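Hmm, what's this shape?
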Amino acid sequence: MSELLVIGEALVDVVSTADGREAHAGGSPMNVAVGLARLGASVTLATRIGTDENGRLLSDHLARSGVELTRGSVDPAFRTSSATATIQSDGSARYDFDITWDIAAPPVAGFGAIHSGSIGALLSPGGEVVAACFEAAGPGVLRSFDPNIRPSVLGPRETVLPAVERLARRSTVIKLSDEDAAWLHPGLDAAEATAHYARLGATIVIVTQGASGSLLRLGAETAFVPAVTTEVADTIGAGDSYMAGLLYFLTTTVGIDPVVSGSASLAEAVDAASFAAACAAVTVSRPGADLPRLDEVASLSTLRSESETP
């Protein structure tokens, strides 16, 4: 399996609940990198964190999960970014960010797949670096993108949409939530949104819809992929866990070349999305962005199969 490069923010989530406040490692791209590494992928993260208390928390978290950092990702002069997450009554989280995003261009040669998303992909000036990396990658590289829109940080739709579509034109795989799709394209339903990004060039486009499952498009074909039912602790990291599971399955089981060339089958793409849904189910069943290891996903699948046996 080719090594994966993830580019984007790593920050500390300060989770505020009725029981108090707790600090957790977070940031959508960092979560994806951790999720991939825990599943068994070889992953390098290009980010920017400091050596302050929050930076040490992130460095330790990444090291424990087996994620490598590119040179320059740790900067003693940088104050590590943070986000305050307030848990709502339905388990979802509302975020308030304190973030600066500026990064030197990491080397992209030698990686079989590159992923970015959220603030790291879209906030200037670092967002321009990410777009340039996508454009510099070779034609055989799988490029994946998750907009994971944060309007409070990124600004108005009219500013964000061109940056999203610039990355989308270079992406092989795009995963966005129904909330992302509604914010970016208020006049389109999920099927129309997947068709839009397929026209921009993506091989696989998925719109996730929480507990309602997800809609997948491969070329002109679409399929509905059900969510995996579980008891929800909170939804922090659910989309990132889905993205990590999707990328892991595509790069290890389906293969980078079939995905990039468009020769992967709809059944293979559905299998990848089903695995991704199982990863997300493990994550939402426990507090914070605690992404699963491969044996935990396998255990959930086994339990689900047994519960469905007559």
Remarks:
- The longest strand covers residues 11-17.
- The first helix runs from residue 28 to 39.
- The CA atoms of residues 158 and 246 lie 29 Å apart.
- DSSP finds twelve helices and 13 strands in the chain.
